[in-house]
Amino acid sequence: MRSNLTLFIGLTLIALLTMLAVLAPVLATHDPAATNADKWLQPPSSEHFFGTDRLGRDVFSRVLYGGRVSLAVGLLSTFLSLGVGTLLGLVASYYGGLVDVIIMRVADIVLVFPSMLLALTLVAIFEPALWLVILVIGGTGWPSVARLVRSEVLRLRQSDFVASARLLGAKNARIVWQHLLPNAIGPVLVAATFSVPAAVMTEAGLSYLGLGVQPPTPTWGNMLRDAQLYLRYAWWYAFFPGLFIFLTVFSFHLTGEGLRQTLGLSQTARRNWRAGS
Amino acid sequence: MMKSNNLLEVKNIVYAYGQVTAVDGVSFALVDKDSLGLVGESGSGKSTLGRCIAGLLKPQRGRILYRGHVINGQLHKEIQLVFQDSFAALNPRMKVGSLVEEGLIINRNGNKEERRRKVREVLQTVGIDPELISRFPHQLSGGQRQRVALARTLILNPRLLILDEPVSSLDVTTGMRLLSLLRDLKFKHNLAYIFISHDLAVVRQICRRVAVMYAGKIVELGDVEAVFSRPAHFYTKLLLEAHPIPDPEQRKVIEIRGEAVDLLSPPSGCRFHPRCLAADQRCRRVPPPFIKVADNHKAACHKAL
Amino acid sequence: MLEVKNLQVGFNEVGKIKWVVKNSSFSVSAGEILGIVGESGSGKSMTALAIMGLCPVDAIVQGQLNFQNRKMNFAQRDAWQELRGVEMGMVFQDPTSSLNPLYPVGQTVAEALVFHKKMPLEEAKKETEKLFTSLGILPAAVRARQYPHQLSGGLKQRVMLAAAICCKPKLLIADEPTTALDVTVQAQILNLLTSYAKGENSALLLISHDLGVIAQTADRVLVMCKGVIVEEAPVLELFKKPLHPYTQLLINSLPRLDRAVQLKTEKSEIVINGSACLFAGRCRYCRQICLQVEPKIKAISEKRRVCCHFPLF
To answer: Which residues of C touch B249 (CB under 8 A)?
Structure first.
């Protein structure tokens, strides 16, 4: 019951944040790029809910539009690492041998390579852009997914239900898609919910360093960077983008935790059944 | 090669997990529609033997013949296995309906309508309400799960069913109902059974013949009646004696020596000699041959006669 | 010596309490072996845990316990701290998960002696070896230095027994002590349990699903079904003449060595919602009153109690 509640709150928050981002054009009270030299660094008021920034832009509208970028980065990069990781993990564990060794060593190399450094290098070669950020974050995130999938599949392959399917005549393709993948995907989904906020944070970090999405496109990260000079005079400038990063991270963590407990429940049920009474 | 009327012949098979030889030279034959109990304690190799016959494990030595054809390490549609732990044997993400249907889908039997009808039919034969087809395994009781596992194998019309401790994780009353179902099914579907169990009394209920295993070898083989009433091997005697009789008027205090064998370094001669009250010099040195002690009754014991 | 009064154990499930042990009262005297038998979900293990004060933290436990003239309330769990391991010992089903894999088995027992009896370590080690020898963990000095994974299941269960009885408790609870073991090893462990109870004049609560084990070991038996004690009787009388239809069903459905039991397809379990007698759905003698009025446990003779409207005389 409690885990379902956690899951429920997490998912509701995610839905809410996503809706704010999607409906940004409708909800925004101002043009996020429109400057107003008369009204710079205004505290929150009924006209500017979250105040204004150093160029007099409406922070509320910018947070809404920034959410589009941040969430897109978080979700797309996670999809990328999830897809690549699951596929490579399956291939490695199923074929084993040399294929396994090669894939997993590459994974190790990617895993130890700092993504920030990779981002710096790529930014030096190309122009900083949204797709680059997604590619860097997604491209460095897959090894942990691949490892997870691989260890799950190796464990599941020994299980009685796989043996039972083989006895009925099931071939490899069926065993992988029908029996191994659906059972391995649970832990992977949980890991994915934790990787979304991590990606949001990385994007914030990159943008903060000026390597991410470039102004005037607002993202929570580059808003924070802009705000750092004014921390002492205008708390709202940094507070609201920070709050939304926090809420995003928090909601995905709640979802992950809830999902983990809900999926784990079947194991508890099983233990109880085995213990008899 | 001479054609025999045996359904299954196991000839001198050996299976080792690394250093540990779990099955060490086992031979027996099974005629069609027969039922053989494999009894023994943990580590006797009975489950490994079952998995070898099912084709899940490939024995390192010896031959397994099914209807006269060697099937070492090969799966055969007519040989199916029911696992001890029904929870582990059913994919937790599949519903009862698709679990039972799977065999038909794999073997491309019939269209969707025919498959669905067959699934309901088989579920009814094992005593599962077809209304349960949309349940997941964890929503079923232990007895129901074991019946679903049974239905999964029956849908392919097997000839030989290997049952690996099918009732040991069930409550007594549930287990007995499953046993009576198995008995009915055997006649209805002309099945042959290899029934693996640590419980002699359960084997007594359902098998015509019984093989007693100890440390990877069959030490006694014969008709259940004969083996249980006139055991020839001292290990069989010990097992029978240690079985707790559910009658407080027949209480017994028995002396049991020693511990189960260490399969990494099995004792010389007869493997049971360190625990045997009748063992002498010969038992310590010479492995006993598997000899006939009566009609249809063999034992590997120097003192059997 | 031990008296349990109105024990109830329940768990909170979405606003209402689900009781897994319902209003159970029974007693055990010194030197007596009381068997508790029942199928899974009968509440037998939870009863044992309650007596040891080891119920899960989210369990609701009610009732009173008189133990050696000490009155205790199940709701106050702190009261068990000083008793557990000293006056009360327990052996569990799975010896593997009960032993710490990082400690030599002798240390597990010796530390219990040091902790509870304030014995110097050297003396505790000697005592442990003596105990090991008496329980057949041979050679004791070698075994004491081995780790759990080096021992067989039977030896591990002996070590657990040694740890449970090292302080000579007056009450020993064995929860399915032989279920995970082979039949020959089972006989050995049961012998050890019996001789401890008789030798030290201590009470033994033997919990098992196996009527054979109960018949061979217990003096008196409680039969439990869905959290309720349905029958209580001396072991001889119980097997000769069960009074509750559930007990009869259990005895009749037991596979036997000496003959093939005629397997009747028993009435399968029909869930009758809100029926008063919990066994009604499986009972072949079930009548209208069984569905409406909850049977109360009543004494039939001095030593027999049964919880049924129509006991089988």
So the answer is: 236, 239-240
This model of the complex carries an ipTM of 0.88
C17, β-bridge pairs: C12
| Closest partner CB to C215 (pick from B204, B238, B244) | B244
Rounded Cα–Cα distance for residues A104 and A113 (Å)? 14
- Nearest-CA distance B76 → chain C (Å): 32
Comparing CB atoms, the residue among C155, C254, C260 nearest residue B246 is: C254
Q: Which residues of B touch A188 (CB under 8 A)?
A: none
* C-alpha span between A230 and A216 (Å, rounded): 18
Q: How far is C139 from chain A (nearest CA, A)?
A: 33
Where do the structural domains in chain B lie, given as residue ranges?
6-78+189-300
> Does A5-276 carry CATH code 1.10.3720.10?
yes
With beta carbons under 8 A apart, name residues in chain A contacting C44: 277
Neighbours of chain A (3+ CB pairs under 8 A): B, C
Rounded to the nearest angstrom, the minimum Cα separation between A101 and chain B is: 24
Measure CB to CB from residue B204 to each of C186, C260, C282 and give the nearest one: C260
- Classify domain B6-78+189-300 at the CATH topology level: Rossmann fold (3.40.50)
Nearest to A134 by CA among A68, A51, A76, A61: A76
Q: Which residues pair with C225 in a beta bridge?
A: C228
Tell me if C184 and B256 make a contact (CB, 8 A cut-off). yes
pTM: 0.83
Beta strands (DSSP E) in chain B are 6-17, 20-31, 35-39, 61-66, 69-70, 79-82, 160-164, 192-197, 209-214, 217-223, 291-294, 297-299
**Amino acid identity at B173:** T
Q: Of the candidates B31, B224, B215, which has an alpha carbon nearest to the alpha carbon of residue C182?
A: B215
Please report, for chain A, the start and end positions of each structural domain, with discontinuous segments joined by +: 5-276
Contact B89 A161 (CB under 8 A): yes
Q: Give yes or no for A274 touching C (CB within 8 A).
A: no
The continuous run of DSSP H or E covering C265 comes out as none
Reading chain B (305 residues) residue by residue, the pLDDT tens digits are: 455 679 999 999 999 998 889 999 999 999 999 999 999 988 899 999 999 999 999 999 999 999 999 999 899 999 999 999 999 999 998 999 999 999 999 998 889 999 999 999 999 999 999 999 999 998 999 999 999 999 999 999 999 999 999 998 898 888 888 998 999 999 999 999 999 999 999 999 999 999 999 999 999 999 999 999 999 999 999 999 999 988 888 888 787 777 777 788 888 999 999 888 888 999 999 999 999 999 999 999 998 86
**CA nearest to B177 within chain C:** C265
Cβ of B173 within 8 Å of Cβ of C257? The answer is no
**Coil/strand/helix, residue C13:** strand
